[in-house]
Write a structure and sequence with these properties.
The chain is an all-alpha fold and 183 residues long. The protein is built from 6 helices and no strands.
Amino acid sequence: MCCRPTGRPSLLLLPTWKSFGGGQSWWQSIGDDLENQRLVLKEYPNGRDRDRQAAAALGPFQACLDTVWWRRVNYFVSLGFVLVAAAFPLLANYLRTGGVTESLDVTAGGSVGWAIESISGFLPRYVGPWITAVRQHPVAAAAVLVGLVLSLRFSAHFRGRISDRARAAWNVGSRVNRLKPTG
């Protein structure tokens, strides 16, 4: 029976160069190795239990990696909202829909226009195209702003979840009660 360097039988026994010597054919040595593997598996019937335990231990790691993936997706969504906000003067006409936003733009235009007029004296001159676009299309501007704020909020939420899940994955085998007073 083949053994690992630790002296324990291996569950995956590959044919070695030594097994080809001694007048045996290649097929006979493969057959002997397969028979050794069957014996090892019969000796250790809890191999499936170990696989289940390993899969259970990988659960927190996989959850952490999944959350990292979702945060990356959220990053690209946030990047898209920032690019739309940066190009808003150019894209404002394309962001409106038929009759829905036009009536809302007219309704919200008065109060948004008044608010923009009150702060426009404090803003630099190069912000003029954005001010004009927001004044003409306040609903689209609000949608982009709300989308960006929600995306950044989800990013902060994912950051906390990643930290929590990484901590849980790190302490998978630990049976220490961290809430128990030690003093």
